[in-house]
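Lab notebook, design round three. We kept the backbone fixed and only want residue identities now. Task for the bench partner: fill in a sequence for the structure below.
Input structure tokens:
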């Protein structure tokens, strides 16, 4: 292909999936009303399969971790038994409803409440009752921990809060389910932080599922990592919508010039974002979900797991982001960064640069979330309009509307 043809094709997005029916105009203000939000909690979050934790937080048999789920005002106790099976329970003592495990993670085969010392095994069974003679006729089998439906997928634990989940996790994830086998293996966690923002949850998720803004909002932090002559507006070369979820691939700018500090940070370790070394997808067992459109000069993928989880995947790193609603006006964002396992000081420098870089860019994104929320609250206009490059946001609202339509 000649230069001009190449340049033209670089800026064309290849869409996969049914994009024709997705709305370009969305009533955002409607979704910022307390009554509407209350219905979202019940119709979306209580029905959805929700990723809550990466498995590496409970890596060992007999490991456990406490995870809060703000949107459902829940505290979960996730346990892993001697065979590695992961279970989820409401973190509540069945005696007087005290929080069973205060917080944190560790290794334990049983959990004793600090109030009256009832003890529960990691499989949820009520293992010991203090002063048991004073509970005549107590049937211990009926007073175990309250389970929450739980399944694991790759490196993530998912839960479902409905009494009877309508579908299994495999069905919920659809095409995503089989596409990432092995991708998460061998990584180490390099950042773990959270922040509460004054913004509705939709606004926060939407900040990460389009690249249209990167040229403008991130003009100082990421001046030339994407785009270039053939794709000046940084169009996504590949974008896919599924039954519920969506993903796109971003293209690197091959002419990206590393500033001195980046060259120094990556001088003795692997190059990471915002530099993008070539990716070889040719191995037969290479996960087909990574760079699913098999584009050249691949930079990274972004996947929205509806409703509230976004995964950014690079060649040697990935970032997990949770957008947990607290109430209609507040969202807790949790971020975990992972990279290849470090083997040298140079690798550590590379990790540090990625960690700092991601956080710096993230701060810019947060500034828009709170501004949008504040502006919408003024009530001047209820709607927003979305371009074709913001197709994953269109999909987000279409999935939300479909779930809200089922009483
Ligand atoms: Fe951004």
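Proposed sequence:
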């Amino acid at each position: 292909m000649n230069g001009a043809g190449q340049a033209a094709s670089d800026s064309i997005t290849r869409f996969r999936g049914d994009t024709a029916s997705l709305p370009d105009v969305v009533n955002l203000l409607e979704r910022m009303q307390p009554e509407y939000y209350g219905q979202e909690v019940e119709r979306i979050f209580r029905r959805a399969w929700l990723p809550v934790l990466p498995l590496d937080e409970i890596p060992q048999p007999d490991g456990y971790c406490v995870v809060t789920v703000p949107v459902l005002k829940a505290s979960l106790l996730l346990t892993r038994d001697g065979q590695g099976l992961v279970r989820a329970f409401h973190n509540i003592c069945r005696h007087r409803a005290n929080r069973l495990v205060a917080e944190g993670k560790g290794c334990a085969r049983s959990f004793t409440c600090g109030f009256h010392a009832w003890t529960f095994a990691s499989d949820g069974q009520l293992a010991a009752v203090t002063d048991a003679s004073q509970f005549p006729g107590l049937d211990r089998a009926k007073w175990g921990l309250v389970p929450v439906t739980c399944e694991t997928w790759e490196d993530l634990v998912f839960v479902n809060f409905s009494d009877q989940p309508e579908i299994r996790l495999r069905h919920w994830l659809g095409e995503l389910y089989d596409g990432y086998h092995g991708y998460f293996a061998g990584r180490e966690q390099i950042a773990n932080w959270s922040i509460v923002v004054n913004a509705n949850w939709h606004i926060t998720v939407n900040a990460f599922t389009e690249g249209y803004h990167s040229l403008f909002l991130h003009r100082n932090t990421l001046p030339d990592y994407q785009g270039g002559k053939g794709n000046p507006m940084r169009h996504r070369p590949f974008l896919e919508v599924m039954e519920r979820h969506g993903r796109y691939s971003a293209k690197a700018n091959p002419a990206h010039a590393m500033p001195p500090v980046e060259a120094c940070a990556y001088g003795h370790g692997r190059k990471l974002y915002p530099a993008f070394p070539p990716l070889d997808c040719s191995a037969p067992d290479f996960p087909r979900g990574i760079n699913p459109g098999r584009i050249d000069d691949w930079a990274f993928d972004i996947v929205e797991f509806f409703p509230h989880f976004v995964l950014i995947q690079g060649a040697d790193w990935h970032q997990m982001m949770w957008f947990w609603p607290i109430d209609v006006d507040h969202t807790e964002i949790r971020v975990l960064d992972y990279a290849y396992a470090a083997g040298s000081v140079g690798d550590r420098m590379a990790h540090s640069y990625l960690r700092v870089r991601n956080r710096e860019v993230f701060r810019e994104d947060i500034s828009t979330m709170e501004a949008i929320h504040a502006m919408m609250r003024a009530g001047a206009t209820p709607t927003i309009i979305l371009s074709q490059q913001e197709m994953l946001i269109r999909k987000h609202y279409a999935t939300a509307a479909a779930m809200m339509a089922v009483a």
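Keep this in mind before ordering anything: The helical segments are 3-10, 34-45, 169-173, 201-206, 214-217, 260-265, 345-377, 391-404.
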